Amino acid sequence: MVRAFLAIDLPRDIKKDLYNLSFLPIPEGVKLKWVEEENFHLTLKFFGNITENFVERISKVCQKVLKDCESFFLFLDEIGSFPEKGTPKVIWIGLRDTSGGLHKILNPLERAWRELKIEGDREKFHPHITILRVKRVENQSNLKDFVEKLRLSAEKLKGKGFLVREVVLFKSELRSTGPIYTPLARISLSEEK
Predict the structure, then answer these.
(1) Which residue in 7, 128, 129, 131 is the catalytic one?
(2) What is the pLDDT of residue 177?
(3) Active-site hit among 4, 30, 34, 41
(4) What is the pTM of this model?
(5) How far apart are CA 161 and CA 119, in angstroms?
(6) Does 126 participate in catalysis according to the annotation?
């Protein structure tokens, strides 16, 4: 079995910019886990544990569905969190899709998932890059102040864009030091016309 997900990997400079946010001092009474620099990505679909055979089928379907889809730009947006109310568990940076390119690849992929009998996601897709996870909070006020400082620090990244040229099917191995993501298949998008 392979723990797999489909994602858009990020260029090195964007990963570096996101990693630089991690130098913000963590306040007392708050335990956070930053995503490792090499692991920043935009998840399109998490498949969970699937067979090697199913990995191959997903890869072929993605190549068939995406062969005529054009590359497109995404832009970094504002800091947010899940859940929206109460204590955040995940802090992320949003992505803006001004061309609609993301939905041009997601809509046919979602139809393909249904044909493969892969369950749809329960919640509406919200493009974001997870930057850290909140592990423990003993001081809500300190966490709130930290998130506000993070939001202000990330302001300088807002509007920074990158070209999406491919979609990657990743294998995820969970380790005590953090997950290791290995590309299983790279599906290229056609160049912009």
Answers:
(1) 128
(2) 84
(3) 41
(4) 0.94
(5) 31
(6) no
